Amino acid sequence: MCGIAGLADFSRDLRDEEAVLRAMTGTMACRGPDAEGRWLDTHAAVGHRRLAVIDLAGSTQPMVAGSVVLTYSGELYNFRELRAELVACGHRFRTRGDTEVVLRAYLEWGEGFVDRLTGMYAFAVWDQRTEQLLLVRDRLGVKPLYYHRLGGGVVFGSEPKALLASGRVPRTVDADGIREVFGLVNTPGRGLVGGMVQVRPGELVRVTRAGLTRRRYWRLTAREHRDDWETTVATVRKLLADAVTGQLVADVPVCVLASGGIDSSAVAALAGRDSPTFSVRFGGGFRPDAMRETEDEPYVRALVRHLGTRHTDVVVGNAEATDEGVRAAALRAREFPTALVDMDTSLYQLFGAVRRDCTVALSGEAADEVFGGYRWFTDPRFAGAATFPWIAMVRQASTPSALFDPRVFAGLDVTGYQDEAYREALADVPVLDGEPAGERRMREVGHLFLSRFLPGLLDRKDRISMAHGLEVRVPFCDHRLVEYVFNVPWAMKTRDGREKSVLRAAVADLLPAAVLDRPKTPYPSTQDPDYEVVLRKRVRAMLDRDDTPVRPLLAADAGGRVEVMNRFEMDLALQIDDWLAAFDLRLTL
Fold first, then answer.
1. What pLDDT, in 10s, does the model give residues 144-199?
2. What is the model's pLDDT at position 522?
3. Cα-flanking dihedrals φ and ψ of residue 213, to 5°?
4. The predicted structure's pLDDT at residue 571
5. Whether residue 89 lies in the annotated active site
6. What are phi and psi of 234, to 5 degrees?
7. Which residues, including other chains, have CB under 8 Å from residue 194's CB and lie 6 or more apart?
8. On the chain, which terminus has fewer CB atoms closer than 10 Å, C or N?
9. Which pLDDT belongs to residue 397?
10. pLDDT of residue 1
11. Would you identify the CATH topology of the domain 229-516?
């Protein structure tokens, strides 16, 4: 895994822009601690930071073949098959890795090569022959890629901080940027800062002298599912097993992130006992609540005993969860303020511990979105709501804020923004003619989670893991598995009256009964009451400052209501304040 950055500008000569390129790639040294490289020509400049995972001694980048230059981040899981096909076409390879396979696939098949790729990736191809830049992102959006239009081209990079370092992007956050933060809608392609745009999952962006065009090379389609139960279960098992096996390929140590839930446990079981396991939990005891009926630890222990893996348990105490340095590091990595800060900081500490032993980790992320594991799928109050199910839940539980200014938010019209985003998301859902209304709605719900909820989780995992130079792979995001399960009827997905019936049946022989039957439990959150004590102290200090960047969003009399503020609004306000300050951003509402 790596970090990529660069510029294409037809209105100026970029050969003297090495200092700019160096500044851009320098912001992503953590993504690529093993090597860096730059390539500059008249109208293109591309840079790279490398995390060596396959072909450690070779595959340096940017990689050049003839008149074509590639800067690439990701892993191509079918690179061996494609390499053999390209050799048969007459290509001669200098390296053993997947990067050169991507480059030569472009040389052989042109833009159509993207249809042949299986993996997680984000890359840029500059073709000197046609003076054309291609920006490409994988089908599910596992790897990030941003760009900002210039007068004569674009500036691009794996992370917003790389684009900011170019000096060509305004350091401003407008009303839509703040609406994205508060709206929880993950609008495809939308960035938060200065007009930045994300390459959408499954999208190819072409930049030439004539301008910029975008093409979706992949999207989910609706098809009739004709397989019976036994065939469906067997197919899911094969697709998942193939995905895990393909993602174990590396020339560095590989492990599995295990939570004690069925998703990560299935990955761990298919990976085998030779792959170490890691888990994270908060210290200070566990108390069941409406979201988390069971704690992870007993189920993790049961899994480890069953599989016989070498296991590391990372425990996060309140001191670590509230540590200002850790919170700042996690925020700088993610570049997105959140109300769930304890989850980001614990993930940051987990990945730091993992990286001491391994360079690659497999995760169970995305199984809930693919198989319908969240309670939002099965609760008609949320699944049947005329909005995103997770937003319906938030709206039901929300109370008037004691910290944020209601007049500002009335002006922002976050609810209207969410409603418009919902209408756009529904319009993107594929339709199967003749599908019963109930099945059609659950297809819509599944697509909403895959296209609007999952991207935020994938971005969080990528950005926080890469802050440690750790590559996290997600077998449940294999597009072949996603395509197949998307068309499995909801009645079959809940065949035994529970969530994820198909997945449970597909891995039933691999897991201990306790893990197999465990209800869905979200990622752990701190329950230490001292956590809120620390937040209130910091909020008071923030409100006492005259120069706090988040001030335009806060109520003028918030200082008198600190004791009744909830932890989520306090965390979010502190995060927005720190985010604006850390990246020298200015609100332009």
1. 999 999 999 999 999 999 999 999 999 999 999 999 999 999 999 999 998 999 99
2. 86
3. -130, 155
4. 98
5. no
6. -65, -40
7. 148, 163, 164, 169, 170, 171, 172, 173
8. C
9. 87
10. 67
11. Rossmann fold (3.40.50)
Cα 181 from chain centre: 16
Element (H, E) at 83: helix 79-88
Q: In whole angstroms, what separates CA 196 from the centre of its chain?
A: 17
Q: What is the pLDDT of residue 285?
A: 77
Q: Left if phi > 0, otherwise alpha if psi is -120 to 50, otherwise beta: which for 225?
A: beta
Low-confidence stretches of the chain (pLDDT < 70) are 1
DSSP-derived secondary structure letter, 540: H
Domains 2-216 and 229-516 fall in the same CATH topology = no
The pLDDT value recorded for residue 294 is 84
Which own/partner contact pairs does 195-199 have at CB distance under 8 Å and 24+ positions apart?
195/148, 195/149, 195/169, 195/170, 196/146, 196/147, 196/148, 196/160, 196/163, 196/169, 197/146, 197/147, 197/148, 197/149, 198/144, 198/145, 198/146, 199/122, 199/135, 199/136, 199/137, 199/145, 199/146, 199/147
pLDDT tens digits, residue range 516-536? 999 888 888 898 999 999 999
The whole-model pTM stands at 0.97
- Taking alpha carbons only, the member of 119, 120, 88 closest to residue 104 is 88
Annotated catalytic residue, options 2, 30, 255, 358: 2
Position 503 scores a pLDDT of: 98
**What one-letter code names the amino acid at 557?**
D
Instruction: Give helix then strand counts, H and E, for the chain.
Output: 25, 19
Task: Please give the backbone phi and psi of residue 200, each rounded to the nearest 5 degrees, phi first.
Answer: -70, 155
Q: Domain 2-216, what fold?
A: Glutamine Phosphoribosylpyrophosphate, subunit 1, domain 1 (3.60.20)
Domain ranges of the chain: 2-216, 229-516
The pLDDT assigned to 156 comes to: 98
Q: Is the distance from CB of 126 to CB of 8 less than 8 angstroms? A: yes
**Looking at residue 369, what is its pLDDT?**
98
